[in-house]
Amino acid sequence: MWLDMGDGLYPDILFHFTDKKALQGILSETFIPSYSKEKIERKTGRGVEYGVPMVSFCDLRLSELKNHMGRYGEYGIGMTKEWANRSGLNPVLYLNEKSDITNTYISAIGDFFEKMWYDKDASLYDKFRDVYESFVDLYCYMKNYESILDRRGRAPESYRFANEREWRYVPFLVGRDKRIVSVKDLDNKRVRCDLNSYLYDYKLSFHADDIKYLIVKDENEIEEMIRYLEHTKKHYDQMTRRRLASRILTAEQIRRDV
């Protein structure tokens, strides 16, 4: 079936922004998931806070990247949406903390667990555990529409996360208990390191043709990136390395010209 996508809001590229060292790591080893904290607020009762293994991307046009780079880093990589679909990425479901559906979902999950755990029939937990965990898995793709953004080195700010139009890669882990972890575990440096090391076997791979853009901070770093590609991607033929070099943009250029 053919679909006419037209010139809609969403581009055919997903961007991931980070720092210089991490971008070089992606190019040398590909994407490796890590645990990130998430907190879903609701209008009544306590919200939920947890850790999810993921790699995050934004579904934004070049002209929309200025503010995003300021919060997440001036080094980035733009991947084709065809690659994203092939790799099983999915858009985030944004929840309004004042919405009834947000409150209902969080309450229902809690009630479901209590019913299984405290019911006199102990077999109920074993019988419905997989169903319960499948519903909990939805938390991996949920985020508040608006909330507080707390980034290292920046003052916390009220932020509309929905403007990012986030997509995520969340690996389906063999150890199901590691799919969602407690914030307490992530606050423990040793435990967090152990959890992240477990994710090394769940890399998100790509090929050269999946890359549409490479973004560095300014023009002074373009030659350095080209040399890094020459060194890191020796297994690529010269034509492929040249094609990748031609896709390098700078954050400075995006801010000024796009």
Give, in order, the helices and strands: EHEEHEHEEHHEEEEHHEHHEH
Percent range of helical residues: 25-40%
**Which segments are poorly predicted (pLDDT under 50) over 5 or more consecutive residues?**
1-5
- What's the alpha carbon Rg, rounded to whole Å? 20 Å
Biggest sheet character: 4 strands, mixed
How far the N terminus sits from the C terminus, by CA atoms, comes to 35 Å
What's the arrangement of strands in the largest beta sheet? 1-4-11-12
The total domain count is 1
What's the overall geometry? globular
| Proportion of beta-strand residues | 15-25%
Question: What does this protein look like?
Answer:
It is a single chain. This protein is α+β, with helices and mostly antiparallel strands. The chain has one domain. Helices cover 38% and strands 23% of the residues. The chain is built from ten helices and twelve strands. It has helices spanning 20-29, 65-72, 81-86, 100-118, 123-137, 183-187, 189-198, 222-232, 238-245, 251-257, and strands spanning 13-18, 34-40, 48-58, 75-80, 90-91, 93-95, 142-144, 146-149, 157-160, 166-169, 211-216, 248-250. The chain has a four-stranded mixed β-sheet. Strand 2 (34-40) and strand 3 form a beta hairpin. Helix 4 (100-118) packs antiparallel against helix 5 (123-137). The longest helix is centred in the middle third of the chain and has 19 residues, at 100-118. The protein is globular and about 65 Å long. Mean pLDDT is 90; it is low at 1-5.
